Amino acid sequence: MSTRASGDPAHDALRVATFWQPRAEGAARKILVGANLVFNEVGYHGASTRMIAQRAQMSPAAIYIHFSSKEELFFRIVMHGHSASREALVQALRFSTDPSERLRHFVATYAAWHAEWSLIARPVHNDMQVLTDEHFAEVVEVRRATMALLEEILAAGVESGQFSVADLPGTRRLLMSVCIDVSRWYVEGGPRSPSAIGLQYADLALKFVTT
């Protein structure tokens, strides 16, 4: 079953190539772009190395020069997706210290990232369970660092009296989940831009933790 919401194939390919341009080089980049597009269209289980090779305009044998398996390819996409979203958050939070302001920046950035880079995020969050135990543990380490950022913000808001949150882990889980879910329904070119979605979600998050 397709995991893709919509989009022009040529435009999708350009968006995915833009993401991978600073993260890989040469043939490895072409393979990652091809794999990312195929995983987005048919999911991990529906993808084959032959399909990925065709999309990358390479032979199936060429894939194994750079990657040991389809799972390793998927791991690279998952790892870079998690790392990129966390780096966006770190940059957004670097100048703010007020809990309310930091929560606004966190949610706005995280929701907007999952809209802007939905072609990356959608397969990442749909099929993570296929990773080997070792690869899954590496991804979880990055994910936990992201979760810790938000939980620290919520705890600081409770301590300062700005937030009323009885269940910190539950609230963190809810806020992150709704931001991640944007990647599953977002349609590029729709009535709301990624930044507009991010700002709306940030306003809702602040209302949620202060009521």
From TrEMBL:
Residues 25-85 form the HTH tetR-type domain. SUPFAM superfamilies: Homeodomain-like, Tetracyclin repressor-like, C-terminal domain. It comes from the Bacteria. Coiled coil: none annotated. Transmembrane segments: none annotated. Residues 48-67 bind DNA. One of its GO terms (molecular function) is transcription cis-regulatory region binding. Keywords: DNA-binding. Gene3D superfamilies: Tetracycline Repressor, domain 2. This is Transcriptional regulator, TetR family. It comes from Aeromicrobium choanae. The lineage of its organism: Bacteria, Bacillati, Actinomycetota, Actinomycetes, Propionibacteriales.
